[in-house]
Amino acid sequence: MTTLARLITLGCTGLLATLPAFANSAAQDEAMIKLATGSGCMTCHHVDPGAKGPEGLPPIGPAWRDVAAKYRGDKAAQGKLTQAVLKGSNPYDSHWKGKASGLAMPPNAVAIKEAEAKKLVGWILQLQPK
Asked: What is the distance between the terminal CA atoms of the chain, rounded to a whole angstrom?
């Protein structure tokens, strides 16, 4: 086998090895969007920045890619944000001015279980900028 043939074979093998990860990622994206929609999250939030909220205002809550960028590298982010989902946030501590029209996140413990909120927050935090 020539060097070129070996490289092509290795490249194809590597590509094929990543296919299940891409499929799993798409399935996970779909599952998380379904969870978020069913829990009422998509009423206020969007995945991508730039979406408009009611009457052309900024969306009520920040875009999740913006959340991921803001908290990237923060080891405590998943715990803090999971608690914000469940218990709500302080309206006097808003750090999304200009990006979101809502003042605070309401508590959502009646709409989503803690384990599901933790999963959703983990998924949000791994989102990459487009």
From this structure: 40
Largest CA distance in the chain: 67
CA distance 96 to 98: 6
Q: CA-based angle 127:114:108, to the nearest 5?
A: 85
pTM of the model: 0.78
For residue 121, give both structure tokens. Answer: 């927050």
Please give the structure tokens belonging to residue 81. 């944000």
Write the CB contacts of 67 (distance below 8 Å, at least 6 apart in sequence). 81, 124, 125, 127
> What is the residue-averaged pLDDT of the chain?
83
DSSP state, residue 33 = H
Summarised one tens digit per residue, pLDDT across range 2-19 is 543 443 443 444 444 433
